[in-house]
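Hi Q.,

Before the meeting this afternoon, I wanted you to have the coenzyme A prediction in hand. No need to reply - just skim if you have a minute. The sequence and ligand are here:
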Amino acid sequence: MIELNLSWLDACLVLDDRALDGLWTREQWSRELSDPRRLCIGLTNDSAGLLAIACGWLVVDELHITAVATDPDHRRQGHAKSVLGALLQRARQENASHATLDVAAGNTSALALYNLLGFRTAGRREGYYRDGRDALIQWLRLHPPLQSSNN
Ligand SMILES: CC(C)(COP(=O)(O)OP(=O)(O)OC[C@H]1O[C@@H](n2cnc3c(N)ncnc32)[C@H](O)[C@@H]1OP(=O)(O)O)[C@@H](O)C(=O)NCCC(=O)NCCS
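Predicted structure with the ligand bound:
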């Protein structure tokens, strides 16, 4: 597990294309990988390169998670759980008290992942995505660390 920097720009673009349908442009990835308030954790291996990423933006005491993805050829091996867990740990070290993100209603794999890590649905943005799907706002308290579903 590593903290990604600009040397991973091309690999992030490839993973974005394969796993996120081209979420961000080269310029947006470049900013993501160079801004000190943005954290980007990657899981790599020697043969396949970048397998999974979790990125977020520290805004005051909140971590706004902006991207979570695993290469389609390497899913259901715990990679997203590992990188997202590492990102949350980094945010704790930076004294973030909460983490939040938006996920499309119906993205069952992502919702299962977030639920597993203790996120709870805190609200809904109707028609938030271009295709008309609603966004479900996910929320996790980071301090003190999660003890139960009571957060
Ligand atoms: C969502 C995504 C990141 C999960 O990546 P992954 O590396 O396969 O996930 P993990 O192997 O770490 O899964 C951890 C847990 O999440 C849940 N989960 C993950 N994928 C799932 C699926 N397809 N169906 C049901 N549960 C799933 C399970 O609880 C899983 O634990 P288990 O395998 O022990 O049952 C991946 O499917 C992906 O890149 N999707 C496209 C991009 C995306 O939708 N990102 C989220 C945007 S908000």
